[in-house]
C-alpha cells in the first residue's frame, strides 16, 4: 500500500442513489431532460452541461437543496472502509462533479474522516446560482485527473460509478467500477475490479495489500 491514495466519486458511489442527478431533475427539470441524455451520450461536455443546469436554478432554492440532501443514504461498508484506510494510513480523497454543500450535508459527521473534498461550489448572491470549481479543465467542471495529478508520487486507486469518473478511471492504475462506469471501461478495454459495496473494495484491498 506504499503511497496508495484513494480517489473516490460521491454520487452513486458513496451514496446508494444519484443525489446530484436527482437534485437536477427536481430543481431544473426541463434543463435536465434536455441536457442529461447529451451528457450520457457524451455529445456535450460535463463542463458545459453541468454548468448550464446548475446556473438555471434560482439561488432561493439553496435551502431546499440542502433539505433534499439530508435524507440520502450512504452505500454499505463505507464507514468501515474509512476506518480501515485510517488504520492503514491510506488517504481518502473525495472528488465529486456535484455540489459541495450536498456532499457535506449527506456525509454529516463523516466529513471529518475524509482527508480532502473536491467538488463544485455554488455562489448564491445573484438571482441564479453561479458555479465555481478550483479544478475546472478541458471537458470537466471538476477535472478529476487534474486533482489526481496534484498528488504526485502516489499510486492512485479510483472508485466510481459513471461517466464523470471515466477520465480518472482511465488514468488510474487500479480502478473499482460499477454501473455505467464499468460499461464505459469495457468499451475502452480498461481493466477494472467490479464492486457493489465498500465491503467488496475493503476485501480486495486487504488481499492486495497482503493484510489477510
Ligand atoms: Mg457518480
Q: Can you walk through the features of this model?
A:
- The structure is a single chain.
- By secondary structure, the protein is of the alpha/beta class.
- The protein has a single domain (about 5-210), classed as HAD superfamily/HAD-like (Rossmann fold, 3-Layer(aba) Sandwich).
- Helix content is about 45%, strand content about 15%.
- It contains 10 helices and 7 strands.
- The protein has helices at about 20-25, 30-40, 45-55, 60-70, 80-90, 100-105, 145-150, 165-170, 180-190, 200-210; strands at about 5-10, 90-100, 115-125, 130, 155-160, 175, 195.
- Strands 4-3-2-1-5-6-7 form a 7-stranded mixed sheet.
- Strand 3 (about 115-125) and strand 4 (about 130) form a beta hairpin.
- Helix 1 packs across helix 2 (about 30-40) and helix 2 (about 30-40) packs antiparallel against helix 3 (about 45-55).
- It is globular and about 55 Å long.
- Magnesium ion binds next to loops.
- Magnesium ion binds near residues 11, 160 and 162.
- It holds the Pfam family HAD.
- Its EC number is 3.1.3.3.
- This is phosphoserine phosphatase.
- It catalyses: O-phospho-L-serine + H2O = L-serine + phosphate; O-phospho-D-serine + H2O = D-serine + phosphate.
- Keywords: Amino-acid biosynthesis, Hydrolase, Magnesium, Metal-binding, Serine biosynthesis.
Amino acid at each position: 500500500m506504499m503511497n496508495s491514495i484513494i480517489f473516490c466519486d460521491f454520487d452513486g458511489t458513496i451514496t446508494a442513489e444519484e443525489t446530484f442527478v436527482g437534485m437536477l431533475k427536481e430543481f431544473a427539470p426541463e434543463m435536465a431532460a434536455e441536457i442529461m441524455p447529451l451528457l450520457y451520450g457524451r455529445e456535450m461536455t460535463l463542463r458545459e452541461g453541468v454548468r448550464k443546469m446548475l446556473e438555471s436554478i434560482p439561488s432561493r432554492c439553496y435551502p431546499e437543496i440542502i433539505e433534499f440532501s439530508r435524507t440520502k443514504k450512504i452505500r454499505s461498508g463505507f464507514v468501515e472502509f474509512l476506518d480501515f484506510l485510517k488504520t492503514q494510513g491510506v488517504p481518502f480523497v473525495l472528488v465529486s462533479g456535484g455540489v459541495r454543500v450536498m456532499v457535506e450535508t449527506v456525509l454529516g459527521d463523516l466529513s471529518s474522516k475524509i482527508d480532502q473534498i473536491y467538488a463544485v461550489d455554488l455562489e448564491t448572491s445573484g438571482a441564479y446560482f453561479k458555479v465555481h470549481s478550483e479544478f475546472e479543465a478541458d471537458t470537466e467542471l471538476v477535472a478529476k485527473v487534474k486533482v489526481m495529478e496534484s498528488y504526485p508520487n502516489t499510486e492512485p486507486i479510483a472508485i466510481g460509478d459513471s461517466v464523470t469518473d471515466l477520465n480518472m478511471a482511465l488514468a488510474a492504475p487500479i480502478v473499482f467500477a460499477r454501473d455505467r462506469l464499468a460499461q464505459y471501461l469495457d468499451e475502452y478495454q480498461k481493466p477494472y475490479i467490479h464492486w457493489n459495496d465498500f465491503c467488496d473494495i475493503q476485501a480486495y484491498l486487504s488481499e492486495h495489500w497482503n493484510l489477510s
